[in-house]
Specification:
The chain is mainly beta. The chain is built from three helices and 56 strands. Helix 3 links the parallel strand 37 (437-441) and strand 38 (474-479).
């Protein structure tokens, strides 16, 4: 057994008979599994006798008397039993079971490992002097609460004003290993009251007076002068006057006087930030041990403690006794507030109502940023600054909405302040108000899909329902590859689909029907496999259809066509189109309207392979490549309308069994220009 050498006396939180010894007086050890040896550290002022056993035996029978901190040099499973005899003779017993296991230090960074070995593994006691800093490596977190997961990283410090010396239970983790230690708080400097040796008496426990110099005779108040040097008891609820003079009578024998006021009152008042000031009344000459009428006690960040301060009181340099003063110190930050939004979502299509909840006995302060407006994609991460001023939260809804006809984002910031003035960490939450942007991703249906970035739609039917019920159309963002189940999907409102490199897979007879709407798709792969020759990827009527940087492919078991377009405006740019069918394959058929095709690749594979049929339309084609593979290869068939070419190329790969119709065929009263700029082979 090793005892710690303490150079200063531990200032107890004395009970003076009014406070019983309890579990909170057991500072160490603590129940749990620790990666360092433990110490036995007790607040012993609440008991007349304390005995302890480190082997699980009866402390009253075979224990040791506790008179200061003890290092428990035991590993594995340890049982500590503590026996207490209180001032009224009542016996109590306490038991602490814990385990000590070696720490795992292999994956620990060098600074953390060095700190752990020096401050926890070698000794469970950390000496801290007020006015200095106690910093932990970044790999460690701490707590002062027995049942709390260590979470604090703040630097530990108390100011030089802290006077009270005490022991603090300290819990630390590196994420793998858990440590329990004890911080011994030492005042920066202790200038104590000097005993007044010139006075011929001593006072102890307030009521006891012993006259020590036999050269004098004494008088207490109006009592007779005497030379009785035995202990005398006085009532300290009233003031007393002591006189003494030399036993040798002379004509000018001086009579000395010392006035003892009634027992003072010590008041503890909170000074905020985990600070308590103990103060004596001004009218008497009493002082604390520091020679002042005030003493300051402070708590570390993260501490919340209740105690009793043993105030040592002096009068004229003469010790009078101790007064126990209850106090509380609180520097434990309150629980961080929580945001609760309408619909339990950080996303809304219109307005969003927000409430803030926090722990009881705490106020909430919040701030809402200025709105930041988005361009194409509300999932983009953009900087939103925290406002400088916060307001007290009243409990009413905080309403967030877009102030313009655009998608926007806000950030809401909040923190809690408890009754002791402690402030929690400032939390923040981003909220998006977006009427236009929707998101589609693969996944299982949960019922929480709202089309937002966090809760995207998981079926194309959800998209179509949201689209057709919107007032002005939407922007759809594709996240990954999405399967569209069979059936026709009627689109009647404008829609811009951002493929983001993802894929839309149309299964079976699934197809898009665009009626009177404008639909644009960019950076997307659209793929279809079908046995139904009448099921196209899309049918467009009286609408607009734009493809940019897309790959479109269709595979049919008999006949197949990718697009059927009527009386619509169409634009294909930098796209690739592939269709394969055993009999007749056709990339697109356009009837009426206008079409612009630039920099695209068309590949049709089938017994009869055709790139495009254009009927009574206005068409501009530039720098496109048409590849036809099959028995009969048809490039572009034109009937009526106006078509212009510029630098387009046609390539037929026929088996030669049938006569090809040619790269460009014209029927009826159509007008075709730019043929000389085109090239063809294999026809």
């Amino acid at each position: 057994m090793k005892r710690f050498s303490l150079t200063a006396v531990f200032i107890s939180l004395i009970s003076l008979g009014a406070f019983a010894f309890s579990e909170k007086d057991i500072i160490s050890p603590a129940t749990g599994t620790w990666c360092n040896q433990q110490a036995l550290v007790l607040n012993s002022f609440n008991a007349t006798e304390i005995y302890y056993s480190l082997t699980g035996s009866d402390p009253f029978v075979s224990g040791f008397a506790y008179d200061g901190p003890v290092l428990i040099e035991r590993k594995g499973s340890v049982c500590v039993r503590i026996g207490v005899v209180e001032s009224d003779g009542v016996k109590k017993e306490f038991r602490i079971d814990y385990n000590v296991m070696p720490p795992m230090l292999t994956n620990m960074d060098a600074d953390t490992k060095d700190y752990v070995e020096k401050n926890f593994v070698k000794s469970p006691l950390i000496n801290y002097r007020s006015g200095s800093d106690l910093s932990l490596p970044s790999g460690l977190r701490y707590s002062f609460e027995r049942n709390a997961q260590p979470a604090f990283r703040q630097k530990l410090n108390l100011t030089e004003n802290n006077w009270i010396e005490r022991f603090v239970s300290f819990f630390v983790t590196d994420g793998i290993n858990n440590y329990h230690s004890v911080i011994r708080v030492i005042p920066a400097e202790k200038t104590k009251v000097s005993d007044n040796a010139s006075l011929p008496f001593v006072i102890s426990n307030w009521n006891s007076i012993i006259f020590t110099d036999k050269k004098f005779i004494y008088q207490i108040d109006d009592e007779m002068w005497n030379s009785d040097y035995t202990e005398k008891m006085i009532d300290r609820s009233v003031s007393h006057t002591l006189h003494w003079q030399s036993v040798d009578f002379t004509e000018n024998n001086k009579v000395n006087e010392f006035v003892i006021p009634s027992m003072p009152t010590v008041i503890a008042r909170s000074a905020g930030s985990g600070t308590v000031v103990f103060a004596l009344s001004d009218e008497d000459g009493y002082t604390f041990e520091n020679g002042e009428k005030t003493v300051v006690a402070q708590a570390f960040y993260g501490e919340e403690i209740e105690g009793v301060y043993e105030a040592k009181i002096f009068l004229g340099g003469v010790f009078q006794g101790c007064l126990g003063v209850e106090y509380e110190m609180d520097r434990l930050p309150p629980k961080e507030p929580e945001f609760v939004a309408s619909g339990n979502s950080s996303f809304s299509r219109n307005t969003l109502a927000l409430r803030i909840i926090t722990a009881e006995n705490a106020d909430v302060f919040y701030a809402v940023s200025e709105p930041v407006y988005y361009g194409e994609d509300s999932s983009a991460d953009i900087e939103i600054k925290m406002p400088e001023e916060f307001s007290r939260y009243s409990g009413d809804d905080i309403v967030i909405k877009s102030l313009e006809d655009k998608s926007c984002a806000y950030k809401v910031f909040a923190y809690s302040v408890d009754n002791a003035g402690n402030m929690s960490k400032i939390i923040e939450q981003r909220y998006v108000i977006d009427e236009l942007n929707f998101y589609l991703a693969s996944g299982e249906y949960t019922g929480n899909e709202d089309g937002s970035y966090m809760n995207p739609f998981v079926s194309f039917l959800q998209v179509v329902d949201a689209l057709n019920s919107s007032e002005s159309g939407i922007k759809l963002h594709l996240n990954g590859d999405v399967v569209v189940e069979g059936g026709e999907y009627l689109i009647t409102k404008d829609c811009h689909i951002h493929g983001n490199g993802g894929k839309i897979i149309l299964k079976g007879n699934a197809s898009l029907i665009i009626d009177g709407a404008s639909v644009s798709i960019d950076r997307c792969t659209v793929e279809k496999q079908s046995e139904d020759s009448s099921s196209h990827i899309a049918k467009i009527c009286n609408g607009k259809f734009f493809l940019n940087d897309c790959e479109v492919a269709g595979f049919y078991s008999e006949d197949g066509k990718l697009f059927d377009i009527k009386d619509s405006e169409v634009s294909f740019k930098d796209c690739g189109f592939t269709i394969q069918a055993p009999r007749i394959s056709m990339c697109s058929e356009i009837y009426g309207g206008t079409i612009s095709v630039f920099g695209c690749r068309f590949t049709a594979i089938g017994q009869t392979a055709s790139a495009m049929k254009i009927r009574n339309s206005q068409c501009v084609l530039e720098l496109n490549l048409f590849t036809l593979i099959g028995g009969i290869c048809k490039g572009i068939e034109i009937t009526g309308g106006t078509v212009s070419f510029m630098g387009d190329r046609f390539d037929a790969q026929s088996d030669g069994k049938y006569k090809n119709s040619g790269a460009i065929t014209r029927n009826g009263g159509c007008k075709v220009t730019g043929l000389s700029s085109t090239s063809s082979k294999g026809f």
